[in-house]
UniProtKB/TrEMBL annotation, chain A:
Pfam families: 2Fe-2S_thioredx, Complex1_51K, Fer4, NADH_4Fe-4S, SLBB. SMART domains: NADH_4Fe-4S. Keywords: 4Fe-4S, Iron, Iron-sulfur, Metal-binding. The keyword 4Fe-4S applies. The keyword Lipid biosynthesis does not apply. Signal peptide: none annotated. Residues 539-568, 569-596 form the 4Fe-4S ferredoxin-type domain. It comes from the Bacteria. The lineage of its organism: Bacteria, Pseudomonadati, Bacteroidota, Bacteroidia, Marinilabiliales. This is NADH-quinone oxidoreductase subunit NuoF. Belongs to the complex I 51 kDa subunit family. One of its GO terms (molecular function) is metal ion binding.
TrEMBL record, chain B:
Belongs to the complex I 24 kDa subunit family. Pfam families: 2Fe-2S_thioredx. This is NAD(P)H-dependent oxidoreductase subunit E. SUPFAM superfamilies: Thioredoxin-like. It comes from Ancylomarina euxinus. InterPro entries: NADP_DH_HndA-like, NuoE-like, NuoE_dom, NuoE_N, Thioredoxin-like_sf. The lineage of its organism: Bacteria, Pseudomonadati, Bacteroidota, Bacteroidia, Marinilabiliales.
Amino acid sequence: MEKYKMHILICGGTGCRASASELIQTNLENALKAKGLDDEVQVVTTGCFGFCEKGPIVKILPDNTFYIEVKPEDADEIIEEHIVKGRQVMRLLYTDPDKKEIVSDAKNMGFYKKQIRIALRNCGFINPENIDEYIARDGYGALGTCFEMTPQAVIDIIKESGLRGRGGGGFPTGLKWEFASKNDADQKYVVCNADEGDPGAFMDRSILEGDPHSVLEAMAICGYTMGADLGVIYIRAEYPLAIERLKVAIKQAREYGLLGKDILGSGFNFDVEMRYGAGAFVCGEETALIHSMEGLRGEPTVKPPFPAESGYNGKPTNVNNVETFANVPVIINKGAKWFSSIGTEKSKGTKVFALAGKINNVGLIEVPMGTTLREVIYEIGGGIKDGKKFKAVQTGGPSGGCLTEKHLDTAIDFDNLLAVGSMMGSGGMIVMDEDDCMVSMAKFYLDFTVEESCGKCTPCRVGNKRLYELLDKITEGKGTMEDIDLLRNLSAVIKDTSLCGLGQTSPNPVLSTIDNFYDEYISHVKDHKCVAGQCKALMQYVVDPELCVGCTLCARNCPVDCIAGERKEAHIIDVEKCIKCGACMDKCKFNAISIQ
Amino acid sequence: MAKIKLAKDKVEKLVEICKSFNNEGSELINVLHQAQHNFGYLPAEVQEVVARELNVSVAHVYGVVTFYSFFTMVPKGEFPISVCMGTACYVRGAEKVLEEFKKQLKVPIGETTADGKFSISCLRCVGACGLAPVVTIGERTYGRVAAGDVADILKEYQN
């Protein structure tokens, strides 16, 4: 690497690839070749930089220039101006929206300032397909350190660090490892749960795409502590790029003797295999995941026995999530004290969130536990899109809840989010504005749960369907006040009587929206109004007689002929006949038609 | 068991796939992934051959195929259209985009146009939330799609 004077890093994550980042890379390489600079400047594909809103991202080292929204045709100019002449391409730099100043170094951007990157430490820094780059950043050093300690000493470090499971459960990782280590068996397994099913969340995928070796290293460390010689990564088949990068990483680690027999001369054997999920949200639950690995339907079973006792193939198994594993090598390298100095009293370290929805800076962020929702949404996220008003933030995906303005100063950690009626979840964070109807939002999540319920427990299989129907009735303007009570009662039953986490949490979006947006439910039921203007059945298209010039265009385009009116006179829509297709509003050139 | 009507070369391919996983029942999901990769979908005949080769019941295979949303028993179109209905895309208007595809192609979700060209399905998050709403057609990803863009996108695939 040292022979190169400069490096051009380009994001090769799924989001940026969808915006032609591969072509940008080819163009950059060709432009370098044309200038005869390909010996001095190296173009490197990295994992996700996180700032997906402004992708594709190109970063130039050593001066840390951060170019945003780069297009393939910008490649020549970047090489000619920046690399050859040493002048930044101003038009591709980020402008701070508040101060209107150009910021060329990422660390001075609002989006990055409050972030601490532990799990994402290598994403956007190294080429994930080159093990040497991982090793150059202390990679596999932690594994070597562990071999000089007893397995129990390693477990003690993880316990002291306070690391808790990042998949959503928040169970102390060290304790989980200890349970698995104490069960004797001829065969044990380490499983990495990479079946990220929460819609709108892409934390694990980004880690696997950007830094696959950190997960492999942590799995080997876990294997060493519990006495397992096989690791299995259960990954979504919908993540082709992550699968590809993992395959490359496993192959390289084997070639370097970092996986396989007698790793680093320690006498410890460990190898990693992959299993593919096939699209079932419930497989995020560890017993369901294990059944799916065994080629069965992914249905959860009663715990105990816990997987630590009897898991994959009936053997002791430890299941951790991708992000949990990605934290492990750093904890070993920097120590438990360092890690536990970050975060809140009961939640240590950082958490990665996929920040999305109606927010200016969509992207992947990692913040210390204890950061407030307000800091995340306004400082990192840059506030609400198009200057609209903030309405709610949803955390925890289909298992979580919608929080409002009054919760914005909540410090994010496992316990605080539970206390206000949501949950940490795996890290999806969706921001909503005034145009989002909260009843429809609850319905959206229930639609998901109904589809994803495995069907084993009646309360979840049937109850969620009934919840969905009640919500649908309300959005159609046919709901009654009794329906709202029924929603509450049924939710309580489903939570109490379902076997696994899916059913136990699926009513949360309903309960939290009733609690926090009760007025909105009332206005749907009593006034037959949707304040957000999202519920089609409750909308009315109305012609403003002041603005209408009587051009007849709307009447001619109405598919059901429900608009009446003479030429040059104001038109009227028959609301009874109207099917609310919106064609009239689209066609009107005078903005005379509006929704009420 | 019903008589298997599958073409001989297809049966051979399936036998080969099962064999590559040592005909082990616990490899069922991997076998089905491979089979769908080769044939595009998993009709009853394919499931019967897989059941026979792995020595498990057809009901078991059917149970697994219908449990996981990734597996399909109906062939997809030449250009399979998937509209992301993850939360991030949903709040940025994916529903309207989906409606527009349905309107233009005149087929419901999960079905294929009469000429076999397009099929429409929903998927849950491709992870390109920065580009929401996202639509994928085959291997291509379209970002920030508005209902008004649908006609132009479809035009790219006509002829």
